Amino acid sequence: MLFNVFLDLLAVLAAAVIIFIIALAASLLWTPYPIKDKTADFTMDEPAGFYPHNWIVRQFGKWVAIVCFGIPNWVFGRLVVEGLENLSGLGNGVRVVLASNHTSRADTVMIQLFLWFKGFRSFVENLIYVIGSKYFNRDKFLSRMLLSAGRINIVPPDMIEGRSPEEQRVIARILKECLKALKAQINQHGLMLFPEGARALDGQMKRIQSGAAGLIRCADTVVPIGIRAAQKGVWSTSKPPRWPLFGRDVKVVIGPPRPVNWLDQESRRLAREYGITPSQAFVDLVGKAIAELVPEHGGIYNQHLEQIWKQDRERRNEPQEG
């Protein structure tokens, strides 16, 4: 126990030193639009489209992750990966979306690390990230680091509700540009997506919003990924964080690929049968595939989908107050 805590402290110290150097370098780099303070909200000039990798910052970040996360986890056997055979199609001209549950800040790092160490380096180098616009304005350091990734900015659902008609039109234009950029880029690159749209700090999956269907439909194949126990690590935002980081196994389970054409056809059939939208049925099928890999984190998707859709129908049929 004490030895593991000592390893944690060394890792945190090393990460702090290296991240400080990265911050200095990143602060000197040009950014495509001004970074606002952390209280800033969506604005009419919010960026859309695809932004390529910043090679310098990306190399810094990659080696920080390998040294501070990858090597310790592999040396002490704390990151366990199952189902690698389901990734055999990566990098062979197939347009792939990696869709995972999301419980920790480290999820993105862990997925990239196991791909890196298992021989999918070219795929990792060219991954595209879909990132909600609001995350660019939380603080200057985080914003600048996110700006270094190959990314497509979207406007999350919780930033759309209650907007004026003019803002709704701007958001629609942004999302249209995002889909156009994604369709152009995914032919050459893979896509990493956390379709829930936010971290689940309690470890339980939340309902996926139907808007994610438009992103996933740009690909040929969806590979569901389940991450187990990441929300218990030091790098999680759960309160309080759990020590030690390397004293807890984190398991990544990779499921069989789902062809997007099959998901599309099945979702249309289910939509007609259960009276829901095809897009909602589509993302619920993806959510169910993820939950089956890590049922202890399945949340709402531990229910039968028919039960979820029945509850949706009952809510729609409830009389409105007033």
Explain how this protein is built.
This protein is an alpha/beta fold and 322 residues long. It has one domain: Glycerol-3-phosphate (1)-acyltransferase, CATH 3.40.1130. The protein has helices spanning 2-27, 55-75, 107-117, 121-125, 140-146, 165-185, 212-216, 260-274, 278-293, 305-317; strands at 50-51, 79-82, 96-100, 128-132, 151-154, 191-193, 221-228, 250-254, 258-259. Strands 1, 2, 3, 4, 5, 6, 7, 8 and 9 form a 9-stranded mixed beta sheet that branches. Helix 1 (2-27) runs antiparallel to helix 2 (55-75), helix 2 crosses helix 3 and helix 8 packs across helix 9 (278-293). The longest helix has 26 residues, at 2-27. It is globular and about 60 Å long. 34% of the residues are buried. Mean pLDDT is 74; it is low at 32-40 and 234-247.
| DSSP strand tally | 9
The fraction of residues assigned to DSSP E strands is: 5-15%
Alpha-beta content class: alpha/beta
- Average predicted local confidence, pLDDT: 74
Q: Span from first to last CA?
A: 59 Å
Helix content: 40-55%
Regarding quaternary structure, how should these chains be classified?
A: single chain
- Total count of domains: 1
- Radius of gyration over C-alpha positions, nearest whole angstrom: 20 Å
Question: Could you describe the largest sheet, including whether it forms a barrel?
Answer: 9 strands, mixed
CATH class: Alpha Beta
State the helix count. 10
Bulk shape: globular
* CATH fold label: Glycerol-3-phosphate (1)-acyltransferase
Reported CATH architecture: 3-Layer(aba) Sandwich
Keywords: Acyltransferase, Membrane, Transferase, Transmembrane, Transmembrane helix
Protein name: Phospholipid/glycerol acyltransferase domain-containing protein
Transmembrane segments: 6-30
Domain Phospholipid/glycerol acyltransferase: 96-230
